[in-house]
Amino acid sequence: MLASLSADGEVQNYVDGSWQKPAGRDSQPVTNPATGERLATIPFSDATDLDAAVDAANEAYNDWRNTAVEDRIQPLFRLKSLLEEHIGELAELLVREHGKTRAEARGELRRGIENVEVACGMPRLQQAGTLANAAPDIDESAVREPLGTFVGITPFNFPAMISLWFLPHAVASGNAFILKPSEQDPLVTQRIFELVDQAGFPDGVVQLLNGGPDTVNEILAHPGIVGVSFVGSTPVARHIYETAAANGKRVQAQGGAKNHVIVTESTDLSYAAEKTVSSACACAGERCLSNDVVVVEDSVYDAFADEMVAKMRDQTVGYGLDDGVDIGAIISADHEETIRRYIQSGVDEGAKLLVDGRDVAVDGYEDGNFVGPSLFGEVSPEMTIVREEHFGPIVGLVRVEDFDEAVDVVNRSDFGNAASLFTDSGHKASRFKCEVEAGNLGVNVGTAAPMAFFAFGGRKDSFFGDLHAQGSDLVNFYTDKMSYIERWPDQS
Ligand code: NAD
């Protein structure tokens, strides 16, 4: 399947410029979630694999940090071209191991490539400022210096894009970088690393280390690593933040989410429903920006609920490689079971099930993990499906009296990743931007996903740290500012 898999179909590490079999004893299968077909086996790395990767990274860093920035970005330009050349094949692999649709996979890759493009601007991004005559006869300047070896630890839901959030900026700014991708869908990352290999980075600058939670905990304790970029669920993000910081590392940790939408009386209800359904059902709801709680002003609640029912029923569930599919497979049978439990919790807690996604059957894919779209009406903010991240295609509608109550419901959430507002009122839009406590805000936009040149926000239990992913935040995260203060008296 992939040239870099071992002869017995195992995922490998990419360490010091070559493919190596992880030495750990644990492993797990990589399975196509739509068909049940076993695609590969992923062995987990142990402490000896990690030591080898960190040694190679720190060795490579000594030269790489002193390599001209113009030369550091050349492999990234080549990587961008290679990713574009292979985007169709990468998207197909992503569908096969993750379950999302082909269009979603291409969109994810495009978003990842955007981050490579932005990092190619490092000659400008890394500049820090100079001031002549900052004090009498004194010039001052600042530089942003790289720091050493960073590790990126990524989740299953966007295995290609999130790996590419971190790798390009880390290495373009002069660091060495090790990626520990999700063990649930490691193949697309392995294929990207075949392209990294072709792009011509010096050995050890960019490495791939496969593994699970134990590998992560070894990373957090390793003295040769200066910082960690993490994306995943909230309990793990909190653990990463606390442990990495306690071990003296820089850390940015993005966690889970519940993203609310407010629908006001002055809006196009059909448009708001279309954008909400697409946000909530894309990638089968396995998205940290999925808008899955909709807070609706009472005067338009019934009409909006009708629009939502029609549009949710219109979603087609199936294999992501087949045409006309809106909702692909769920990553694992366990996660499918979790989503089904959340639907049952909505029923048990008294919400009104308007569309029930539990009875879905996909002809020809009887071994796949599928759940159809589910819509609940008359949901209250205390219910489990509003408070907890279910990571499935489930939407709950909350009825509120007015805009004040809507903002209150949104801000009661423990999470603060994203929120959207649908309105024709400029006044409500400005209040939304000032009053709602979330890091990515959309107005008349279904999914508030910032482009690669803006930081990807997140607050409360959705983010631990201060500098976010993407944009100038990442440049600051991967570098340290140093100031030079110079005086050159006349010695003649
Ligand atoms: P996860 O937390 O289970 O796993 C993420 C990574 O952490 C993986 O690489 C995994 O190997 C590792 N890990 C898992 N358990 C661990 C443990 N106990 N100790 C140490 N490491 C551990 O997350 P997931 O299920 O792969 O991804 C889905 C989650 O990611 C959702 O909560 C989603 O909201 C979140 N996410 C957040 C963002 C964001 O920008 N805020 C973006 C994408 C996904």
Automatic annotation (TrEMBL):
What Enzyme Commission number does this protein have? Answer: 1.2.1.27
Q: Which SUPFAM superfamilies match?
A: ALDH-like (SSF53720)
UniProt-annotated stretches for the region Disordered: 14-37
Matching entries from InterPro entries are given as:
Ald_DH/histidinol_DH, Ald_DH_C, Ald_DH_N, Aldehyde_DH_dom, MeMal-semiAld_DH
Q: Does the keyword 4Fe-4S apply?
A: no
The alphabetized UniProt keywords are: NAD, Oxidoreductase
**Residue ranges the record marks as coiled coil:** none
Segment forming the signal sequence = none
Cite the Pfam families for this sequence.
Aldedh
One GO molecular function term of this record is:
methylmalonate-semialdehyde dehydrogenase (acylating, NAD) activity
Aldehyde dehydrogenase domain residues are 19-480
Leading EC class: oxidoreductase
Q: Which PANTHER family match?
A: MALONATE-SEMIALDEHYDE DEHYDROGENASE
Q: Which named protein is this?
A: methylmalonate-semialdehyde dehydrogenase (CoA acylating)
Q: Which organism is it from?
A: Halosolutus amylolyticus
Highest classification ranks of the organism: Archaea, Methanobacteriati, Methanobacteriota, Stenosarchaea group, Halobacteria
